[in-house]
Hints:
Largest sheet: 8 strands, mixed
Helix content: 25-40%
CATH topology: archaeoglobus fulgidus dsm 4304 fold
CATH class: Alpha Beta
Number of strands: 8
Enzyme class: hydrolase
Protein name: Endonuclease V
Structural class: alpha+beta
Order of helices and strands: HEEEHEHEEEEHH
Strand order of the largest sheet: 3-2-1-4-5-8-7-6
Site (Interaction with target DNA): 82
GO cellular component, one term: cytoplasm
Family: Belongs to the endonuclease V family.
Distance between the termini: 31 Å
Amino acid sequence: xxxxxxxxxxxxxxxxxxxxxxxxxxxxxxxxxxxxxxxxxxxxxxxxxxxxxxxxxxxxxxxxxxxxxxxxxxxxxxxxxxxxxxxxxxxxxxxxxxxxxxxxxxxxxxxxxxxxxxxxxxxxxxxxxxxxxxxxxxxxxxxxxxxxxxxxxxxxxxxxxxxxxxxxxxxxxxxxxxxxxxxxxxxxxxxxxxxxxxxxxxxxxxxxxxxxxxxxxxxxxxxxxxxx
DNA sequence: GCGACAG
DNA sequence: ATCTTGTCGC
Length: 228
């Protein structure tokens, strides 16, 4: 699959990236805008320890059985430093290369990082969703910004993630007595629907199967690249 | 100035 | 993200 809007350059200065985020953030759709979801994809990137080499992967799952339908990967070199708030400019280039190799178009993509739970309401999930005009959900293991109250210990419990009086996401417990994860709107999916999907995709572990499968794939390839 | 800071 | 040992529990 390929982006649907005019591609923008990635070799940007920090100030230019910030301005671009502000412009693209206006395109984010925060309501459900999709029909049937049969295929859900997960994306992830692995970094090599002492070089800037990285490996990106996309894993598409059957939304009902959670079985792998197709995978695609790509390797490259980081061209942008890790700057909190500009994460997408570091990980999207390799992810786009992997997505380009995908023969099909997923109905929903789960991202390893935030959606609108971001300083300028434009995290990785939003960026990917807007570029491809595809439904996306941000699912992070830790928080970038925002505050939340306490959460019950049972699976399914959640608390609103707030920033400046605004609900930017949800801290969701996907497994009882396990540290919660941070869910936020990426594109074309409302927060309630996003949480429903993340719970459905996390029947057994803390993280959704989509990100777990993508994570396992990139790490397997990274290990293989170093050793055998 | 100080602390926080997706992966 | 990556580095990094043992340990508790099913």
